[in-house]
Design a protein that fits this description.
CATH superfamily of chain A: ABC transporter involved in vitamin B12 uptake, BtuC
Largest sheet of chain A: none
CATH architecture of chain A: Orthogonal Bundle
Largest interface: A-B, 20 and 25 residues
CATH topology of chain A: ABC transporter involved in vitamin B12 uptake, BtuC
CATH superfamily of the largest domain in chain B: P-loop containing nucleotide triphosphate hydrolases
CATH architecture of the largest domain in chain B: 3-Layer(aba) Sandwich
CATH class of chain A: Mainly Alpha
Oligomer: heterodimer
Largest sheet of chain B: 6 strands, mixed
Strand order of the largest sheet of chain B: 7-8-9-5-10-11
Structural class of chain A: mainly alpha
Number of strands of chain B: 11
Strand content of chain B: 15-25%
Number of domains of chain B: 2
Mean pLDDT of chain B: 88
Strand content of chain A: under 5%
Number of helices of chain B: 7
Helix content of chain A: over 70%
Order of helices and strands of chain B: EEEEEHEEHHHEHEHEEH
Distance between the termini of chain B: 28 Å
Structural class of chain B: alpha/beta
Shape of chain B: globular
Radius of gyration of chain A: 19 Å
Helix content of chain B: 25-40%
Shape of chain A: globular
Low-confidence stretches of chain B: none
Distance between the termini of chain A: 49 Å
């Protein structure tokens, strides 16, 4: 009883903990399907590229408007979409491999972000942009997160079927429907939107961890897409909750605490997961 | 009807044939033959609209959406993709206006037709190449497209599967659909398809298969 109370008391007693929890939970739910689809589309790295891409935009926003949510969001959104779009465009036009094109975007974005922050006079902490502080989620940011999550989940439900087919078999989808490029474009926009709204709370780099780690871990638990998304959402929510508790009781930075818990969930999944986990015998040997 | 006018296709700057013209009548069944790399698959993609021609024009008088069904070679499919065989086949019902019981009925009929009963819940990774090929054919059979383009539909199929595939091709032909079938087994093409399109680096020849293909020495008619 006494121990159990520790698991929720901080969220009852402190408004900032409650806001961080709610924000983190909704973010984990809306990033779950995005992360799973990114992996299926072999675009796991694009989250990183976008997260780095957000930096110079957010830094510019900060330079011109100070620490205001709309300026940081708009800057981040523009730059994130721009970087993802630039990389996709280069790949399509020149045939440069997707991963190489994304890898080229990271250092450019990171360097540009650091440079702009340097020129702006270092009033905004780079560490804050990169690693955030879940405990500083204010009312405005939380409202923003709720809107983005609601929009993402509804949009994902609407494009689920075309996106699934576009991922598995784009040639087939092209012969029966023209929704493929639309679904793909909307999907990428949602990824950027979630990363931008998330970077305010747990930091640009950490939010990628919250998006990808539960999604990658879920692959060890099921072979069915809806189950993968559900497992990923549950793992993400657990990571947010446990991570915030760790950060509260041991005075740890909240973003890294959440992502490390998610990382722990990933490693446990790799070891114990029923689908090709390390402790499972290979199915080919056991079935024949 | 499929009409190709002064058509050239291939990689940019590397056309596979000189400009060719041919017309496939509505309701025809045409085998497409030629050596590896002569551009059979690319030709189907150009006709489907998935690849742009280098020059010339393709016109297919079918509705823009769902008018063409294309069976590509299967190697590009991600076998790790987390869906079941039944879900893959059910995608063939995309865009058809049917009630849920009607959809189920058609889906199960297709699964039965292609000898896939009992495999419904199998994930893609647990299917053999032949089973996956039959699933892709079953998905195609669910589309109502008047034009069907099949790229090596017999690949990975056993003898029984090949016979099943030819049986369905004839059934589609009898329904009045227009078919193009890429196939390397000349004896089967000669036996099963009335017309043949022979693609060579010097151009294309279209004609009755009995005239364009000489009887094969070892007769292996599936």
């Amino acid at each position: 009883m006494h121990v159990a109370a520790h698991l929720w008391m901080p969220f009852v007693d402190f408004v900032f903990m409650r806001r961080a929890l709610i924000g983190g939970l909704v973010l984990a739910c809306s990033t779950a399907p995005l992360g799973v689809f990114l992996i299926l589309r072999r675009m796991s790295l694009i989250g990183d590229a976008v997260a780095h891409g957000i930096l110079p935009g957010a830094a510019l926003g900060f330079w011109f408007a100070g620490l205001s949510l709309p300026a940081l969001t708009l800057g981040g959104l523009g730059a994130g979409l721009g970087m993802a779009g630039l990389s996709a465009w280069i790949t399509r036009r020149t045939g440069l491999r997707e991963d190489a094109s994304l890898a080229a975007i990271y250092p450019i974005s990171l360097a540009a972000g650091v440079l702009i922050l340097g020129i702006a006079g270092k009033r905004l902490d780079l560490l804050h942009l990169l690693f955030g502080s879940a405990l500083a989620v204010d009312e405005t940011t939380l409202t923003g997160m709720l809107w983005v999550t609601g929009f993402s989940l509804i949009a994902m439900a609407l494009i689920y079927k075309p996106l699934l087919l576009d991922t598995l078999d784009p040639l087939f989808l092209q012969t029966v429907s023209r929704l493929g490029p639309l679904a793909h474009g909307l999907f990428l926009t949602l990824v950027v939107l979630n990363l931008v709204i998330g970077f305010q709370a747990i930091g640009a780099l950490m939010v990628v961890g919250l998006m990808m780690l539960p999604a990658i871990a879920s692959r060890f638990w099921s072979r069915r897409l809806p189950v993968l998304i559900a497992v990923s959402a549950v793992l993400g929510c657990l990571s947010v909750w446990l991570g915030l508790l760790l950060s509260f009781y041991y005075s740890l930075p909240s973003g890294p605490a959440i992502v490390l818990v998610a990382g722990g969930g990933y490693l446990l999944s790799v070891i114990f997961g029923p689908v090709h986990g390390l402790l499972r015998r290979p199915p080919l040997l056991s079935s024949q | 009807m499929i009409t190709c006018t002064a058509l050239r296709w291939g990689a940019p700057g590397q056309p596979l044939t000189p400009a060719v013209d041919f017309t496939l009548e509505k309701g025809s069944l045409t085998g497409v033959i030629g050596p590896n790399g002569c551009g059979k698959s690319s030709l189907l993609k150009v006709i489907t609209g998935l690849q742009k021609p280098l020059a010339g024009k393709v016109s297919v008088d079918v509705p823009r959406r769902g008018g063409l069904a294309f069976l590509p070679q299967q190697q590009y499919l991600d076998r790790q993709f987390p869906i079941s065989l039944q879900e893959l086949v059910a995608a063939g019902l995309w865009g058809t206006r049917l009630t849920s019981p009607q959809r189920n009925e058609r889906l199960h009929a297709a699964l039965q037709d292609w000898c896939l009963s009992g495999l419904e819940q199998r994930p893609l990774i647990a299917l053999s190449g032949g089973q996956l090929q039959r699933a892709l054919l079953a998905r195609m059979s669910l589309t109502d497209s008047p034009v069907l383009l099949l790229d090596e539909p017999h690949a990975a199929l056993d003898e029984e599967g090949q016979a099943l595939c030819w049986k369905h091709i004839h059934a589609w032909h009898e329904e009045g659909r227009t078919l193009m079938v890429v196939c390397h087994d000349l004896a089967s093409v000669r036996h099963h398809t009335p017309d043949v399109l022979h693609i060579k680096s010097t151009g294309c020849a279209l004609g009755p298969s009995k005239e364009l293909i000489r009887p094969q020495p070892q007769l292996q008619v599936a």
